[in-house]
Amino acid sequence: MTKTTKKTTRESPVDVEQWLHVYQQVVKIREFEEKANELYINALMPGLAHLYIGEEAVAVGVCEALRRDDYITSTHRGHGHCLAKGAAVDRMFAELLGKEAGYCRGKGGSMHIADPQSGNLGANAIVGGSAGIATGAAFSAKRLGQGQVAVCFFGEGALGQGLLYEEMNLAQLWLLPVVFVCENNFYNEYTHYRETTAGELTARAQAFGILTEEVDGQDVRVVYATAERLIERARRGEGPAFLLCNTYRYRGHHVGDIDRAYYRSKQEEQEWVTARDPLKILSEWLTEEGLTDQAVLDSIRTEVKTQIEAGVKFALEAPYPAVSEVDEDVYA
Amino acid sequence: MPEPIGREITFAQAIREALAEEMRRDPRVFILGEDVAEAGTPFKVLTGLVEEFGKDRVIDTPISEAGITGLALGAAMTGLRPVVDIMFGDFITLTADQMVNQAAKIHYMSGGKWSAPMVLRTTLGASRRSGAQHSQSLHVWFSHIPGLQVVVPSTPYDAKGLLKTAIRDDNPVAFFEDKMMYRLKGPVPEEDYTIPFGVADIKRTGSDVTLVATSSMVQVALEAANMLEAIGLQAEVIDPRTTSPLDEQALIESAKKTSRAIVIDEGYRRYGVTAEIASVIADGAFYYLDAPVKRIGAMDVPIPFSPPLEDATVPNERMVFEMAKTLCGKA
To answer: How many CA atoms lie within 13 A of A157 on its CB side?
Structure first.
């Protein structure tokens, strides 16, 4: 990220260019997901999608603190992570539509976007299923001395999976450079996490002696600052960390989950959208501190929208893979 | 099969040599598993490796089969070549998500971009009086999954050559060793060699009946062949060596030649390896067969502890002999 313009707020010197980039990333994910929803509603997208709207500050805050060659593993709700780590909008949409031009040549789909060039080891449709992959990538990074860090994104639902604890144990035992980022969006699909999760969430990582932090996942500044500290600590060889980000899934578990009254109230949803929106928190800070003005933010958003429209057009026009490709790449 | 060479070593030594030679050849190769270092595993297959390669490459892990398999997968995707030791084949159930949903699919799901060059070594086979959770032969589970390859060696020579191939392969491989065979001796050359996957080996030629057998069942089939010879029947014993990929053509050709086939595998009979192979032969050699293709597998019960009960569940040479005799009209 270029570090050119410095301005000072009450708190500290601020790299305006960096925060405008952060804003752009948050907006990009928001607009991407809105478009994905639209594609679904218009029956242009096969299958399902699990939208990340409302949680953007987590992916962006964490990935801003990563190098391009650092690794991530993502989840079924993974579009945000993939975009934040550097995936291109057009090839993302192409994958969502099952097209040859997609990141996985159409074989992965919404829940399996992977991209070695941006260090994305793959989104994973088994809850908690990527904890081993991330920890193993951290093992390689340490063994090969390349200074990379691996971030394992997962939702609070993954706290019910045993694999996660096996990996946290291994990571701390061997001081592997992996940061476990738990996105607590409150709902394991359609069930509040308090109905599924005993004790305190952070206590689970603390039991292994893993450095644990809990942050407001709606404030990208806090997520970034904390993630950077934990990531750089891991990079120095001081061991893994667990970052709990409290956030909220604005939409349903997936695009088809429209009627949600039986598990959460409209009022609760509205409170998050109006009072705790990551995009709003960021843009208000940027304008109120005089770091930028609304016109600049608007032009970024317009640019992003243009990019999204172009990406969708590219994907809609792109060809499907030839049926003859169906048995290619079963084996390397 | 090459000409027998002067040197004979055990199956366990063959495994150990393959690992040691590959670790010397390629610094990316490492071993991880429960009690693999100083202990050298309960079967002592890995004895001496930690002394040569150190604890960074022969790594003792917690008792976390899923965890170490998942970690191995991540390491494999990012530049290393792990060999995971899963002490008993029964425990592959604990690795199942990592093998079946993760390792097997990452290459395909990523459109060919990521790959998982990892080996999962484990055991199979009953007869050790170990009870229902330490005696099963579950290799068919992984054979069912596209993206995985499954090796079931029957001799020290095959074990060494196939394990080297497994370690050099860019895909996940499950390698099943019959724990009753670790002391079996056989000729193994000193020099480096590998054996390709998907190439069956005729362990004994014959013209009257084909005995397709895997892993330690090859020894059972060879014993049965000796018994059959005594009554004037020449059995051909053919070993697929890998159940995935499967050398269908070689099995079909052998059955065409003899017109009769029995498939013997120590996995459960129901929906087992024997079912798949019998189907392949029935399809491919139909017009040449003089009898239905027969199957012998482990009895479809949890493996019992009590010795006479356990012995009743495992295929033996007498069963193969009797079935072959009947099939050849010599009953």
So the answer is: 18
Would you give the DSSP letter of residue A118?
Answer: G
Q: Does A110 touch chain B (CB under 8 A)?
A: no
Nearest CB to A331 within list B107, B109, B110: B107
Residue B315 backbone class (left: φ over 0; alpha: ψ -120 to 50; beta: rest): beta
Torsion of CA A314, A320, A322, A325, to 10 degrees: 100
CA–CA gap between residue A54 and residue A56 (Å, rounded): 6
> B65, B95, B110, B170: best mutation site toward chain A, by most A Cβ within 10 Å?
B110
Contact A310, A28 (CB under 8 A): no
- Report ipTM for this prediction: 0.95
Q: Please, what's the b/e burial string for A9-32 (b: 16 or more CB within 10 A of its CB; e: otherwise)? A: eeeeebbbebbbbbbbbbbbbbbb
Torsion angles phi and psi, residue A191, rounded to 5: -130, 130
Tens-digit pLDDT profile for residues A41-54: 999 999 989 999 99
CB distance from A119 to chain B under 8 Å? Answer: no
Asked if A114 lies within 8 A of B109 by C-beta distance, the reply is: yes
Phi, psi angle pair for A108, to nearest 5°: -95, -55
Q: Any chain B CB within 8 A of the CB of A173?
A: yes
Tokens of B22: 């590959």
Cβ proximity of A93 and A315 under 8 Å: yes
Within 10 Å of residue B63's Cβ, how many Cβ atoms? 12
Q: Are strands B235-239 and B209-213 parallel, antiparallel or unpaired?
A: parallel
Note the pLDDT of residue B330.
Answer: 86
Distance, CA of B113 to CA of A117 (rounded, Å): 10
Q: How much is the pTM?
A: 0.96
Residue B147, SS3 per DSSP = coil
Hey, is the C-beta of A139 within 8 angstroms of any chain B C-beta?
yes
For every residue of A29-83, DSSP letters joined together read HHHHHHHHHHHHHTT-S-S-----TT-HHHHHHHHHTS-TTSEEEE-TT-HHHHH
Provide the Cα torsion A234, B55, B174, B307; round to 10°. Answer: -130
Least CB–CB distance from A133: residue in B70, B107, B149: B70
pLDDT tens readout for residues B172-190? 999 999 999 999 999 999 9
Contact yes or no for B85/B34 (Cβ under 8 A): yes
Retrieve residue A225's tokens. 């600052």
pLDDT digits over A171-199, tens only? 999 999 999 999 999 999 999 999 999 99
| DSSP run (H or E) holding A151 | strand A150-155
A126 touches B at CB < 8 Å = yes
Owner of token pair 């050359």: B189
CA dist list (Å): B280 to A172, B256, B275 = 49, 12, 9
Q: Do B75 and A108 touch (CB under 8 A)?
A: no
Would you call A126 and B101 a contact, using CB atoms and an 8 Å cutoff? yes
Helix (H, G, I), strand (E, B) or coil at A48: coil
Query: What is the number of CB-based contacts under 8 A between chain A and chain B?
Result: 147
* B107 part of the active site: no
Residues of A with Cβ-Cβ distance to B23 under 8 angstroms? none
